[in-house]
């Protein structure tokens, strides 16, 4: 099954104890169940503080494990916890009050994974030629037009009843914007020191019962 893509802004919307998401190493995780099962645990606090953000800097990209460092005082290898020790990270010293029978640590448990973090988002203007209404939406560059259509359903629940076009051409709904020839101009705007808000690529929607030929 194709994974669902999320933008950093979408991840940031889930930043509370009751609705807790994070992203790391390219994927998005819903840690709400973890927070519920460890409610009241002081080791949950660093994770809650990081809610809605990307915590890839906590991990070694090659091993996908928590980063470690050598303690200058004890010369022992310790886990890197920038916001303090958190759930499933062992204490820095031997102790008999830490249970290690939890199985897989949460950062290696795929049951929390809800999708993939987009490597690049872009904005497009969707123009409804039937109503003359337009809206600018942020989409993930990896998404197909069909997945973008599903995003647009929040603006128009009948979006599936339209033919989607760009520059007079029908868009292939199983392909991405780039694959459909809808170029992402952000880098060009950056190089030319131009305001990217001045131009947004436009997609035109034509109602299927009254298609207008260009």
Topology, element by element:
Elements (H helix, E strand, L loop, with lengths): L4 E2 L1 H5 L2 E2 L2 E6 L2 E4 L1 H6 L7 H5 L18 E3 L6 E3 L33 E5 L3 E8 L4 E8 L4 H8 L9 E5 L2 E2 L15 H6 L10 E6 L7
Parallel strand pairs: 1-7, 8-12
Antiparallel strand pairs: 2-3, 3-4, 4-7, 5-6, 8-9, 10-11, 10-12
The dominant shape is: elongated
CATH architecture of the largest domain, please? Roll
Classified by CATH, the class of the largest domain is Alpha Beta
Quick one: how many beta strands? 12
SS element count, helices = 5
Unreliable runs: none
- What's the Cα radius of gyration? 23 Å
Percent range of helical residues: 10-25%
- First and last CA, distance: 37 Å
CATH homologous superfamily caption of the largest domain: Cytochrome b5-like heme/steroid binding domain
Structural class: alpha+beta
The average pLDDT value, as a whole number, equals 90
Number of domains: 2
Beta-strand content: 25-35%
Element order: H for helix, E for strand: EHEEEHHEEEEEHEEHE
Q: Taking strands numbered 1, 2, ... along the chain, how are they ordered across the largest sheet?
A: 1-7-4-3-2
Could you explain the architecture of this structure?
The protein is an alpha+beta fold and 214 residues long. The protein has two domains: 5-117, Roll (Flavocytochrome B2, Chain A, domain 1); 121-207, Roll (Ubiquitin-like (UB roll)). The chain contains five helices and twelve strands. The chain has helices spanning 8-12, 32-37, 45-49, 145-152, 186-191, and strands spanning 5-6, 15-16, 19-24, 27-30, 68-70, 77-79, 113-117, 121-128, 133-140, 162-166, 169-170, 202-207. The strands form three sheets. It has a five-stranded mixed beta sheet. The protein has a five-stranded mixed beta sheet with strand order 9-8-12-10-11, covered by helices on one side. A hairpin with a 6-residue loop joins strand 5 and strand 6 (77-79). The longest helix is centred in the last third of the chain and has 8 residues, at 145-152.
């Amino acid at each position: 099954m194709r994974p669902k893509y999320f933008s950093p802004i979408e991840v940031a919307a889930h930043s509370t104890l009751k609705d807790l998401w994070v992203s790391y190493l390219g994927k998005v995780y819903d840690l709400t169940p973890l927070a519920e099962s460890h409610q009241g645990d002081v080791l949950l606090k660093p994770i809650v503080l990081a809610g809605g953000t990307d915590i890839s800097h906590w991990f070694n990209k090659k091993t996908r494990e928590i980063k470690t460092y050598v303690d200058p005082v004890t010369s022992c290898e310790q886990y890197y916890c920038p916001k303090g020790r958190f759930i499933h990270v062992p204490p820095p010293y031997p102790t008999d009050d830490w249970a290690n029978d939890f199985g897989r640590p949460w950062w290696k448990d795929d049951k929390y994974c809800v999708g993939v973090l987009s490597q690049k988002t872009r904005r497009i203007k969707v123009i409804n030629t039937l109503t003359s209404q337009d809206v600018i939406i942020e989409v993930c560059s990896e998404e197909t037009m069909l997945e973008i259509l599903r995003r647009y359903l929040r603006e128009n629940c009948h979006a599936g009843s339209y033919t989607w076009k760009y520059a007079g051409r029908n868009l292939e709904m199983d392909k991405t914007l780039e694959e459909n020839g809808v170029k992402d101009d952000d880098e060009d705007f950056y190089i030319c020191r131009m305001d990217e808000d001045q131009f947004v690529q436009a997609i035109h929607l034509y109602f299927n019962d009254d298609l207008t030929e260009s």
